[in-house]
């Protein structure tokens, strides 16, 4: 089996590749990524893509059919991956997250790829509801990022068929350690803040709900979706567990307890955060009983604490550093490495100012 993973040099990709190397040691793994965040490393050892059989450096907007020849399955992680980036690069979020997603899927189907796994998001539900949301509920995306996921799902549904199974995994908010870390995710941010500042200041009143999922449990779900035998040709699945629906304040308190019962404050005067939703994961339990999430919130925060301490991440200015995706992109643009269309300039990716070791 030959599997192509787009966006493999991001936060999820290294964990997924490590997981697949264990669960499917015989497969051929290929990566495709522009390398924006290749230097956001938490390891001093071999780069994570050294586990791959082949790494392509490129943009999903620019691929052609040759990339998909002989490929059996595609895992499509490539995206501009949070709300602040979507606000700053709104048009490019639509181009990369939706138009390029459909382009990749069309090429894959034409090349005879049998399975397409799309990393979607529970953020498509957007606004609050007293009842945990199920896959057929009305969607209410509130950001450019969430809108791009809704649009991609709708167009992918039209491409699916008996010879091209599409699985849209609506993930909760990701968390946990990775060889390429993100600290612009709520739980990761809280643990980093607790370590760096000795306190956590929640900018809202702490009441909004979020479903979370550990990055290693995301990899388990993708592993299931690659060759699933249950469900329809096109399947949308809320991916996570009911136990991981948490209020923002709960997450802050869990991070505080892991670090040492430090102070947590909220802002009761803050404007209402409309991004509040709980999610029902019954469909995922039905379809993938052997690939259910294994991580608990307590285990996740303790692992984050240990991982951040191991890399010496106790800088109060961590939000200006390489683990914040928008900061990293803005820095590459300001220094002239990326153009306004987020394509590489100068001598290209091979001379990018990555931190850490040189590319393998």
Helix content: 25-40%
Counting DSSP H or I runs of 4 or more residues, the number of helices is 10
Q: How many domains, as an integer?
A: 1
Main sheet: strand order: 3-2-1-4-5-6-10
End-to-end Cα distance, whole Å, is 24 Å
Q: Under the CATH scheme, which architecture would be assigned?
A: 3-Layer(aba) Sandwich
| Secondary structure category | alpha/beta
The dominant shape is globular
On the 0 to 100 scale, the average pLDDT is 91
Radius of gyration: 19 Å
Q: So what's the CATH class?
A: Alpha Beta
Beta-strand proportion: 15-25%
Low-confidence stretches: 350-360
Task: Indicate the CATH topology.
Answer: Rossmann fold
The CATH homologous superfamily corresponds to NAD(P)-binding Rossmann-like Domain
Q: Main sheet?
A: 7 strands, parallel
Number of beta-strand segments? 12
List the helices and strands in order: EHEEEHHEHEEHEEHEEHEHHH
């Amino acid at each position: 089996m030959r599997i192509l993973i787009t966006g493999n040099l991001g936060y999820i990709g290294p964990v997924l590749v490590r997981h697949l190397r264990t669960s499917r040691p015989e497969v051929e793994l290929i990566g495709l990524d522009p390398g924006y965040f290749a230097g956001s490393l938490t390891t001093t050892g071999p780069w994570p893509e050294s586990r791959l059989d082949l790494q392509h450096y490129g943009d999903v907007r620019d691929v052609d059919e040759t990339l998909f020849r002989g490929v059996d399955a595609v895992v499509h992680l490539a995206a501009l991956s949070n709300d602040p980036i979507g606000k700053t690069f709104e048009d490019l979020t639509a181009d990369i997250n939706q138009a390029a997603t459909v382009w990749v899927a069309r090429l894959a189907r034409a090349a005879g790829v049998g399975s397409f796994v799309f990393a979607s998001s529970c953020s498509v539900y957007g606004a609050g509801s007293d009842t945990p949301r199920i896959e057929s509920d009305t969607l209410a995306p509130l950001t450019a990022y969430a809108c791009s996921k809704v649009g991609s799902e709708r167009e992918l549904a039209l491409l699916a068929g008996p010879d091209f199974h599409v699985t849209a995994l609506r993930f909760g908010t990701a968390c946990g350690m990775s060889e390429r870390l993100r600290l612009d995710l709520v739980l990761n941010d809280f643990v980093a803040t607790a370590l760096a500042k000795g306190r956590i200041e929640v900018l809202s009143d702490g009441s909004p709900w979020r479903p979370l999922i550990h990055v290693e449990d995301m990899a388990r779900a993708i592993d299931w979706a690659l060759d699933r035998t249950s469900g329809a040709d096109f399947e949308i699945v809320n991916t996570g567990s009911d136990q991981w629906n948490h209020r923002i304040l709960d997450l802050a308190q869990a991070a505080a307890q892991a670090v040492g019962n430090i102070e947590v404050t909220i802002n009761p005067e803050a404007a209402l955060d409309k991004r509040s939703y709980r999610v029902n994961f019954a469909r995922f339990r039905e379809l993938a009983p052997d690939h259910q999430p294994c991580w608990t919130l307590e285990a996740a925060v303790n692992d984050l604490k240990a991982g951040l301490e191991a890399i010496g991440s106790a800088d109060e200015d961590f939000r200006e550093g390489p683990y914040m995706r928008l900061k990293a992109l803005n820095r590459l643009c300001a220094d002239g490495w990326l153009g306004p269309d987020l394509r590489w300039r100068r001598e290209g990716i091979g001379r990018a100012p990555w931190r850490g070791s040189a590319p393998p």
